[in-house]
Structures are given as structure tokens and as C-alpha cells.
Design a protein that fits this description.
The protein is of the alpha/beta class. Helices cover about 50% and strands about 15% of the residues. The protein binds one RNA strand of 77 nucleotides through α2, α6, β10, α11 and α16.
Length: about 550
RNA sequence: GUGCCCGUGGCUUAAUUGGAUAAAGCGACGGCCUCCGGAGCCGUAGAUUGGAGGUUCAAGUCCUCUCGGGCACACCA
């Protein structure tokens, strides 16, 4: 519902309740916050509050009795926006608003266009969303695709809600994993040149390792034959991870995901940012020496056990880099850090929170969004996807099969917290089973109706609503649609506050559905010119909201399909 | 074994963060094209929300226990 109106109602309710409190001389601090909801059942009014139920314990009175006291008070103060008030069920107060309010909202949507739905609840707070951050040791698979879609949509939603958001990809270009990558490629290089050398333990098995080796042969020929020294490995490592990273970047671009910055783990060492942070923690007494290694007192901050930050051999662990990295994020001025991780990393959260706590930052300002796994269903069967075993579906392949829009929507249509079952056959079908088409079809239909209007010389000037007779939009379905449209801002806010991008997806589906129903029951362009104009105005507003919502998800709004 | 996440019609999921009669899609069955795009619309059947207690005006949602499933438990990243 429109924010001004719900604020106005909340204020009214607050004042009325205050008066009751004073008359019974009850401490005003006991007053709970007023919560207004937009009921899904139309019989429960346009807006509703449960405040009387909440107050019954405090005031020691029957909820219904309290509700009627509040209602009486409100009726005396406000008659402009409220049509009438009902007290229903155990003591809910249901408001029915004046229809003019809805027409006003409709105008607002059309006036604000692409800005409609935006709010300022984020108050410009600096947020960093770090996501994907896949090791540059292999290509992106569909699981990463889900993280990418969730992170990207969440970022857009947070921005719409008034946060100042920066996205970042953390590149693990330091440490054992990329070394193993270098060794794996080198081994394949030498195999291809006919040498018999052992393949590294836990080496990377995929075909792309051979591809990289072939590339190097093509470019450098037999230059590294017989070599296995540090600088050769270093060369293979750099060559391989840079190529793979480029490949990852390309995949993300094709998926519609762009990062504001790419942060190298190695740069933390090059700029000597790791040691000082560890030193600092040591001074605070949160890092101690044990058996030659340095340990973080993670258990003191709620983790299961203490964790090594500097190994016995003097090498920092991944955690050490990560501590320095997150310290750096805070030092760059970010107030909220959101990391999006695959669910398999959940055991790492407590340890990271402990580190942040130890550094003196509020552990609550660091939040991890866990994205559950994706299982791909092909011809009714589950296709496995473990990175370790080398059996995974590359994101690239999925994009070729179903396209960006379908892939993104499928990743975003359910809670990121629940497993995604990605049914390839449904995703590929351009049919009613596919929710993406259902939504896009609604948009295309609207465009087509507007085109028809133009042909029949019924042209709508969206910059001026003076010739629109809003009163003609009096059908129940029409008011229902306007109500839904007006909810959009709330949906974005909730989606931003609870970090649930899928709320936007289900909203979209619901709105598309309302339009399809309306379309079947009513003719937009008809004999009556005024009515046609008014309805065109309505569907133009739907078009705007559909487009705004699709944009948040990174899904296209096609005018023709 | 310990910790985290998840159990909702046959299947995939919702449920305004504790609210009113648990809502959609798929699948099944039955209807709707002289008409703006049928990639659509309408209807019927299908649920004791894994189970047992508890908290309160109110529990799918919170607490305890229990049973199933997933994941994690490195001086890997």
C-alpha cells in the first residue's frame, strides 16, 4: 500500500491508542508498535491491524472492546481517506479506503515510471555484497549461477530500497588451490609432450586442464618440457588462473552479472595487509602460539574451536587472508557486509563472525546468505553436480540450453534457502509450464494492446492524466490490480530487509496472473473511447511495474515474443 | 558422534516474519476462441503442515523432544 497512506493511518492509530493509555494512566512505553498489513483476503479490507489483540493483555480489556474505542477515536479525526472501518474476527481493525486513493496511486505509478517501487529505507547506507567468488581453478557451474543470480538481484533490490551497494568478486589467486592448478596444467602439458610424470595428488581432473595445456603448447611449444621448478609452476599457475578467470568473467557477463570490483587475495600480501591484522589480534590477546602455529581464539567468540591463522611452516591460512580481506572491507567504509556462499560453506560462518568480533567490529554487521544446492533434472532424472568428482553442468551449457532469462528466473523463483530443482525440460519448454514466459507474455500482450490503441487512434499521453476519467475503473478486478500495483514498494522493501529476492519473483507472477485474468474478462480497446483510455492507462501502469520488477531480477521485458 | 539447514496436497513451492477459511503452478478430470496475442482463462478432485508435547487471544511459523533428508566438521580454499 502507498506509504504516505499507511504512515498516515499508523499515526492516527498511534494517537488514538495514546489517548486510551492516558485515560487509563498506563505507561506509554508499554505501547507496542502498530503493524499495518494488506490482507490477502479482500473481505478483510484494504488495510488491517491486529493492534487491539496485542493491547488486550496490557490494557486488561477485551480486544473487540479496545478495537471499538480505537475506531471511534479514528472516525472523529479522519474521514478523508477512510471509507469505513470494520471490526472483525477476534478483534482485527479493517480499514476500507476511499477509491480516490487508488486512482491517486495509479497516477503516481505512471508519473514515477522506472522509479516507482524505489524507497529510501536504506538511507544510503554503504553495503558490500560479495558473491560468486569462485576459485579460479575451474569454470562456473549451475550452482554458482544460482549464487550469481541471487547476488545480482539482491544488489538491485537493495539499491531500489535506498542502500548504496557495491558488488565485489574475491579472487583466490593465492595459496594451495591455484598452485595445484598450475601443477595440474604442467603435468598435462608434459603428458601431452610424451613425458611420463605423476599427476599431482588432488589435482584438477577436468578436460579444461588439457585445453589449457594444449594452448600453452601452441603458444610456447616445448619450452617447458622436462621442467618442474618453482618459476615454471608459477608461470603455469598464472597462465591458467588468468585464463579461467577471464572465462568466468565472460560467463558472468553473458548471464547479465557485472561486478563493481574484482579483489585479488594476492594483493593483500603484496600490500602487506595480512600480517598487521594478525599482529593486531595478537596484541589484543585473541591470537596465540601453540605448537609453532598461530591460533585465533575463535571458541571465545562462539565458534566450536580455535582456528589456525598462521601454519607451523609460517604460511598464512585461508582464514588469515579472509580476516584481512573483511577488515579491508570495513576500512573502505562499508557498514554492512553481505557474503553469499554456497551452503557447503556454512561451517565457516561462525569462524568468520568470531574473527570479525575479535577485530572489534559488530559481528551482526557481517551477514552470510547461504544458497542451497541446485539439482538439475533432465528427462526426469537427476544429473549429479559435484565439483570434486569433475561431474558438473557448466553455467555456459545451461545458458545455451535455456537462455539467460529462464535461467535467472528459475534461480530466483524460490527461496535461495531451499534446494532448487532445475527441470531442464520445463525450462526449455516455451509453454504454459514455464513461468518466465507467463510473465513475459503478460508484458508483450500489454505492449500489443497499446499498439492496437495507436492504430485505432486511441493514443495515451502518459505525461498528462487530465483526460482520464478514473471513475470508469470501477470493476472489482481493476481495483484489485491497483491494490497489487501499490504493494510493489512494500514488496521491494521486504525483499531488501529480509534479503529475499524471490519475493519479487512471486509478486511478478501474481501480478501477471491478475492481468491475464483481467484481459480475458474485459476488453481494453472498445467502442467507448473514455473507457478505452482509462483502461489503457491502467494497463500502462501494469506494464511499468512488470518492467520494473523484471529489471530487478535481470530478466528482459520483451515487447514481442 | 557434534553443529547448521530443510520436512506443507501425487510432484515443485507460497504463506505479508505469530494473524482471520494454509495459497499457487505442474500432473489428473471437465469446460471457454465470430472478440485487443489460447504462451491465455474458468471449474472439480486432492492437506490432521513428518510425529509428540509446550508457550497464548492466536502456531505451518516460536521452545523442548523425536523421526526422516541434505550439508559441514583441515595447519584445503
Amino acid at each position: 500500500m502507498n506509504k504516505d497512506i499507511s504512515e498516515r493511518l499508523k499515526k492516527l492509530l498511534g494517537e488514538s491508542i495514546q489517548k486510551i493509555f492516558l485515560s487509563q494512566s498506563i505507561d506509554l512505553n508499554l505501547m507496542p508498535p502498530v503493524i499495518l498489513t494488506t490482507p490477502r483476503n479482500p473481505e478483510h479490507g484494504h488495510m488491517s491491524t491486529n493492534i487491539a489483540l496485542q493491547l488486550s493483555g496490557i490494557l486488561q480489556r477485551e480486544p473487540k472492546q479496545i478495537a471499538s474505542s480505537i475506531t471511534e477515536e479514528i472516525i472523529q479525526r479522519e474521514s478523508e481517506i477512510i471509507n469505513h472501518i470494520d471490526i472483525a474476527g477476534p478483534g482485527f481493525i479493517n480499514f476500507y479506503l476511499n477509491e480516490q486513493i487508488f486512482y491517486h496511486i495509479l497516477k503516481e505509478i505512471v508519473l514515477q515510471r522506472e522509479k516507482f517501487g524505489c524507497s529510501d529505507i536504506g538511507k544510503g547506507e554503504k553495503v558490500m555484497v560479495e558473491f560468486v567468488s569462485v576459485n579460479p581453478t575451474g569454470p562456473l557451474h549451475i550452482g554458482h549461477g544460482k549464487c550469481a543470480a541471487v547476488g545480482d538481484a539482491l544488489t538491485k533490490i537493495l539499491k531500489a530500497a535506498g542502500y548504496q551497494v557495491t558488488t565485489e568478486y574475491y579472487i583466490n589467486d593465492h595459496g594451495k588451490q591455484v598452485n595445484t592448478l598450475g601443477e595440474s596444467v604442467l603435468a598435462r602439458y608434459r603428458h601431452l609432450l610424451g613425458e611420463e610424470v605423476p599427476f599431482p595428488e588432488n589435482g584438477y581432473q577436468g578436460d579444461y586442464i588439457f585445453d589449457l595445456a594444449r594452448e600453452i603448447i601452441k603458444e610456447y611449444h616445448e619450452q617447458f618440457k622436462g621442467k618442474s621448478d618453482q618459476s615454471t609452476i608459477q608461470f603455469f599457475k598464472d597462465y591458467a588462473y588468468k585464463k579461467i578467470l577471464q572465462d568466468i568473467k565472460n560467463d558472468l557477463t553473458n548471464f547479465g552479472v557485472e561486478f563493481d570490483s574484482w579483489f585479488s587475495e594476492q594483493s593483500l600480501y603484496d600490500q602487506n595487509k595480512v600480517q598487521p591484522v594478525i599482529e593486531q589480534l595478537k596484541k589484543k590477546g585473541y591470537v596465540y602460539n601453540h605448537h609453532g602455529a598461530l591460533w585465533l581464539k575463535a571458541s571465545y567468540f562462539g565458534d566450536e574451536k580455535d582456528r589456525v591463522v598462521i601454519r607451523e611452516n609460517g604460511e598464512p591460512t585461508y582464514l588469515a587472508s579472509d580476516i584481512a580481506y573483511h577488515d579491508d572491507k570495513f576500512k573502505r567504509g562499508f557498514k554492512i557486509l553481505i557474503d553469499i556462499w554456497g551452503a557447503d560453506h556454512h561451517g565457516y560462518i561462525q569462524r568468520m563472525k568470531a574473527a570479525i568480533d575479535a577485530m572489534g567490529y559488530d559481528p551482526e554487521s557481517f551477514q552470510v546468505l547461504l544458497v542451497q544446492f541446485v539439482t538439475l533434472i533432465k528427462e526426469g532424472k537427476i544429473v549429479g553436480m559435484s565439483t570434486r568428482g569433475g561431474e558438473f553442468i557448466p553455467l555456459k551449457e545451461l545458458l545455451q540450453e535455456v537462455g539467460k532469462d529462464v535461467a535467472r528466473y528459475f534461480f530466483l523463483m524460490h527461496s535461495h534457502d531451499s534446494h532448487t530443482e532445475f527441470d531442464l525440460d520445463i525450462a526449455k519448454s516455451q509453454s504454459l509450464e514455464n513461468p518466465v514466459y507467463y510473465i513475459q507474455y503478460a508484458y508483450a500482450r500489454i505492449c500489443s494492446i497499446i499498439e492496437k490503441g495507436k492504430k485505432e487512434d486511441i493514443l495515451l499521453d502518459l505525461n498528462s492524466d487530465s483526460q482520464i476519467l478514473f471513475g470508469l475503473l470501477d470493476k472489482e478486478e481493476e481495483l484489485e490490480i491497483i491494490k497489487k500495483l501499490s504493494n510493489f514498494k512494500k514488496v521491494i522493501e521486504r525483499s531488501a530487509v529480509y534479503w529475499k529476492p524471490y519475493l519479487v519473483s512471486s509478486y511478478l507472477y501474481d501480478l501477471a496472473s491478475a492481468f491475464h485474468k483481467y484481459y480475458t474478462n474485459y476488453q481494453v480497446i472498445g467502442k467507448n473511447r473514455e473507457l478505452s483510455m482509462a483502461r489503457l492507462y491502467l494497463i500502462s501502469a501494469i506494464k511499468i511495474v512488470l518492467e520494473n520488477a523484471l529489471t530487478l531480477l535481470g530478466v528482459c521485458a520483451p515487447e514481442k515474443m
